[in-house]
Amino acid sequence: MQRPQPTATERSFSEHEIIVSKTDLKGRMTYVNDVFCKVGLYEEEELLGQPHSILRHPDMPRAVFHLLWQRIQEGAEIFAYVKNMAKNGDFYWVLAHVTPSHDLQGKVDGYHSNRRLPGRNALAVIEPLYKRLLAEEQRQADRKLGMQAGAALLNDVLRERQQGYDEFVLGLATMD
Ligand SMILES: Cc1cc2nc3c(=O)[nH]c(=O)nc-3n(C[C@H](O)[C@H](O)[C@H](O)COP(=O)(O)O)c2cc1C
């Protein structure tokens, strides 16, 4: 599927709605709820079997996704602010909670994400931070070096704030 051109138009959803998806171990979507389809302007059939990177917005720093995959592959959960792109290129922000899911034997059999509407005060901190991370990543010679430089800058920012990543993200979530 061709990548849409990003537009400056924001889409939104209600604070009572949750965007849900599930994936297999390779990250291909196996379930999406109606809210996911409605906000992203996709039909369910267009999403099932696809990776979540179909939603990837070019404004998102790679370091955030790197941390996300690192966490869930270790069996841990993560909360992350993510700017996503709808099928027509419009954007929407989410606060995503991503976790591994387990079969009855306790083995990881996929991943699961619930996404809620983030608060405006949280985005007032996140948007400039992600702009800085992205600029740092884009200054590097290649994708891998970019991701490492973004991750290093994120760590510097957290050190300055004397906060761990989770404390930072969840602290923002309670600001609104
Ligand atoms: C359960 C789950 C949910 C995800 N949700 C999103 C999402 O909403 N938006 C997004 O851009 N990436 C999401 N990702 C991360 C993507 O897999 C991917 O790492 C990201 O889009 C960056 O693309 P890239 O790794 O090809 O650069 C999710 C991953 C998992 C496992």
From TrEMBL:
This is PAS domain-containing protein. It comes from the Bacteria. InterPro entries: PAS, PAS-like_dom_sf, PAS_fold_3. SUPFAM superfamilies: PYP-like sensor domain (PAS domain). It holds the Pfam family PAS_3. The lineage of its organism: Bacteria, Pseudomonadati, Pseudomonadota, Alphaproteobacteria, Rhodospirillales. It comes from Ferrovibrio xuzhouensis. Residues 30-111 form the PAS fold-3 domain.
